[in-house]
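TODO from last week: model Zinc finger protein 782.
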Amino acid sequence: MDFVCDICCKEFDLRCHLAKHLRTVHSNTKPFKCEICFKIFGKKTHLEEHHMIHTKERPYECDMCDQTYPSKTELRQHHSIHPRKRPYVCKTCDKTFPSKSLLKKHCNIMHTVGRPYVCEACGKAFKTRRCLNDHYAVHTEERPYVCDLCSLAFKRKDALNRHRLTHLNKRFFVCNLCGKNYSLRTSLGIHYRDEHGVAI
């Protein structure tokens, strides 16, 4: 059984992978704080990389010129100065890639059988017409779904429906460990993680 993200339609084999995706990609919470400069981060790994600014560590080394960097992001930015070969060619559309893993990711997203609904703007393929229609919103600034209570506008109907729950005093999602309740499932998941150290 697939678990589908209501926000971006990405699919996961396990519920815990969907929960992690919601927490790291769609959550605005940043629970990790640097004790030196108090900057906050959404992921523990980002905080750990940030600490290297203070410790002057530079563990990421370029395999082409031996320059070192404190973060993977800076190393990736540095890599752009080196001419890159793109030997891996997509047999379907002739697009080229520097690694086999990027080619595979491209093929899974763009050309996988069972994803018959293709975006005319970018070529990304989807399993359902609904996911394709939701995806079209990324190519436009239109926000046609407007909350009738506060006038906040959304690109997708499911986002508006989730937002409307925040106006209700009904809280459908209850923590079975402490009894706190929430109007959104994602809020309950964040509560489990932050208060009880449990991923759902």
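Done. Residues 15-26 form the longest helix (12 residues).
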